[in-house]
Each structure stands twice: as C-alpha cells, then as structure tokens.
Design brief:
With 236 residues, the protein is mainly α. It is built from nine helices and no strands. Helix 1 packs across helix 2.
Length: 236
Amino acid sequence: MTTTAGTGSAAEQPVRGRPRSESVERAIVEAAMRLLEEGVPLGELSIERIARTAGVGKATIYRRWSGKEELFVDVLRAAEPDDLELPGTSLRDDLVVMLESLRLRGLATRSSAILRTVHAEMKSSPRIWAAYHSTVIVPRRALGIEVLRRGQLNGELRADVDIELLNDVFVGPMLVRAMLRPDAELPEGLAEQIVDTLLDGLRPAAPSENAPSENAPSEGALPESPAPAEGRRTHP
C-alpha cells in the first residue's frame, strides 16, 4: 500500500526487539523433540534443558513462548501431519478431507514415539492439555461445525438436525479407531465410508413421484358424489 510522507506508516515505525528467526524457532522445537525421542519424560523436560540442547539462551525461548505448555503444543503440532486443505466443493468433500486428516494423525500417533509419549503424558498435565485443547482442538471443532452449518444452509443436510451433535457423530467413529482402539485398522477409504454411511440418512428427502397430491382423498375416505346435472330431477 502506498503512503505519503509524514503519515507514520507501519514501514516507517521503529521495530522493537529482535526480529523472530524461523530457524531459531525450528531449532528449539527440534531440540524438544529430540529429548522426547531420547525418553526424557514430559514432566522433566525443562526450558533450561531445551535451551541447552538447542544452543540458545532461556530468554530466547521465553521471547517466543510464555512457558513450557505453549512450547509443547507447537512440538505436538510439528510432529503431527498438517491438516489437509478443504476443497469447498461440497459438504461431502469437506467432511471426507476432515476425517482423512484425523485418520492420518491416528496413523502418525501409532508410528511416532514422540506423539505416543506426549499424548500419553499430556493427559496427566492439565495445563498442557488445556493449551492443546484451546489452540488445536477448539479450532478444529469450530471448523467442522462451520462446514456442517454451511451444508445445512445449502440444502445438503436436513434442517432439523443438531449441528453440534452431528459434528460429534461424524468425528466420533474415526476418533474411536484412531485413539481408543489401537488394534483397529485405519484403512484408506475409511473417511469416505463413514461420511457416505451417515449422509445417506441425513440428506433432505426428495419429493416422491408417487406421493399423493394435496387434493387427493385420504386413505379410507368416501368418494364425493357427483354434482347433479342441470335440469335433472334429484327427487322422485
């Protein structure tokens, strides 16, 4: 955007503090991941130890994260597969992509020692779990509800269904297999199978060609007597 002199544009303002370096942040996250891979419990993983492993000072970490909880959330996100981009072409397509992201994260958790360790220990750390919940789970849930609400407005879903409940119904089967049943298979095509099974009963009913018209007599009703012809005697 072009600005005139003397307007105090953002480009002219002095930059406070040191510019953030992506390479430094990556080194810090990788240092934490390396310590977790070596078997250091989450509770014993201190900022000082991470800083020493990354070759930076503690102040460098605290300039980027307010504490260990926020740093661990970024470590988790770095270890998990990225969320897939929604195509936005239809309700079905978006739901399939969302569930496929869950399936891939489930596979990654099974194969990644870091994710297994952190997910297991995170449950015993309310502060880390709260940070992960607010920065990762809540936005993902909000996205799912937005996709379903848009599908409802577009006529792809029945208007009488509870959207928040429906979000749990779609996500639940994949979460159960990915998180609660480590022996359950997570095959390709599972996301499509779940979405298609549920959508079959959730789409608005199409009007039937054999449906009776509004003026048709109801079942069991007696037919109306024909009106008498003009000039015909109606009484003996």
